[in-house]
């Protein structure tokens, strides 16, 4: 999935929040990619720019809907 064909669905303050959101999207069947500018972990201070979560344009609306759900509802939907 080339990055040039993706759109940012949300920007997070840190990698942990972005990874949780990425997991929620993957559980919903939406392919997503995390983009962070920390030089591969060598310069963690650069994370202050945020961590972007990218999806295909056609998945943007559904991804937004998934990320807007409270975590408990995501679990209930996944189990259903």
Descriptive keywords:
alpha+beta; 3 helices; 20% strand; globular; Alpha-Beta Plaits; 80 residues; single chain; 39% helix
Q: What profile does the largest beta sheet have? A: 3 strands, antiparallel
The beta-strand count equals: 3
Overall number of structural domains: 1
Strand content: 15-25%
Q: Over all CA atoms, what is the radius of gyration? A: 13 Å
Give the helices and strands as they follow along the chain.
Answer: EHEEHH
Mean pLDDT over all positions = 80
Helix content: 25-40%
CATH class: Alpha Beta
Molecular shape: globular
The gist of it:
It contains three helices and three strands.
Please characterize this protein's 3D structure:
This protein has helices at 15-27, 60-68, 71-79; strands spanning 7-12, 32-36, 51-55. The chain is α+β, with helices and mostly antiparallel strands and 80 residues long. The chain has one domain (3-79): Alpha-Beta Plaits. The radius of gyration is 13 Å and the shape is globular. It starts with 6 loop residues before the first strand and ends with a helix.
List the helices and strands and how they pair.
Blueprint (H helix, E strand, L loop, with lengths): L6 E6 L2 H13 L4 E5 L14 E5 L4 H9 L2 H9 L1
């Amino acid at each position: 999935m080339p990055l040039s064909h993706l759109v940012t669905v949300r920007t997070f303050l840190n990698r942990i929040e972005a990874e949780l959101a990425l997991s929620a999207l993957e559980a919903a069947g939406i392919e997503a990619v995390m983009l962070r500018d920390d030089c591969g972990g060598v310069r963690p201070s650069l994370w202050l720019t945020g961590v972007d979560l990218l999806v295909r344009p056609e998945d943007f609306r559904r991804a937004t809907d998934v990320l807007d759900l409270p975590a408990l509802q995501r679990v209930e939907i996944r189990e259903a």
